[in-house]
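hi! just following up on the protien thing from before. the input was this:
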Amino acid sequence: MPISPLSSPRTVPNSERLWFAANHPLHNTFGFPVRARLACRIDHERDVMAALRDPRAAGQRILVLGGGSNVVFTRDFDGLALLVALRGKRVLHDDDNDDAFHYVEAAAGENWHEFVAWTLEKNLPGLENLALIPGTVGAAPVQNIGAYGLEMSARCASVRAIEMATGKVVEFNAPACRFGYRDSFFKQEGRDRFLIVSVTFRLPKQWTPQTGYAGLAHALAAQHHASANTAPTAQEIFDAVVAVRRAKLPDPRTQGNAGSFFKNPVIDAAQFAALAAREPQIVSYPQADGRVKLAAGWLIDQCGWKGRTLGNAAVHDRQALVLVNRGGATGDDVLALAQAIRDDVKARFGVVLEQEPVRL
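and the predicted 3d structure came back as:
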């Protein structure tokens, strides 16, 4: 069946249950007005291969899209977008060997923040430091999301995915995911090969609060915990994380952004020693392997970019890691701003910033 030219959105008749649409707008948190030549909503695992084997998918480039929270679109997508809308979450079982963990599974299309809140409602702490991160559960292992001293990889038991070329269902345990700092197998090699359908998390029964991150510790101290000399609950950490993020990060619903745009660079000890000799106030975090992580936001701020604009794109005035769409910006505008920031940071500090969102 031929695909209609890009004009206005319309539902494409389908003799099966699949939902297809031509010229379909693609949701993304930057708010860029981009469309896909053809889109199919994935409501069930069986929809993946049914969509790919549909005659309309023949010869099409494929894009897997969840919440659109970690992408920079520079133009319309001339192909088939698979819109992951898989829903469902459940408590699976305890570890029969050491009885140390609760196992919880969530479908890839579940909203991440709502899933974290649900685990606390079930009295299953362990993900509270990752509250209010935009996106879906399926995107979490791709980026190995992290915040306030915790990375998703520390709680991941396995990832269930479908190999799109064959339809084979593959279970990746945590080592097979090859998690790194804001990185994974799925980001490096699996993006065009696999569609993630669910993630299973391993949450510790003997939970201990993680409050070492300075911003989080300050927020909790502003409450009663420091004076009361009592450890915060998981719900209190969740609430503090939400408060901190809302105070310094823009809401994508009101100002387009993709959260932190740059990774915190990690450099070797010798490079850091030379840099610290020139910049004694530099913000840094020693790593277990002897390297040193730098605060990218501090580097950007020192180059004078916080709050500055370039065309219709800007650096947020409260968090230099966040690039925003001031209204009418394109993906190219945001990338031009990002490059200007990278150039200045490299010129002053000799450090190369790497962006987190994927360019499409």
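The first strand starts at residue 10 and ends at 11.
Residues 214-248 form one domain.
cheers
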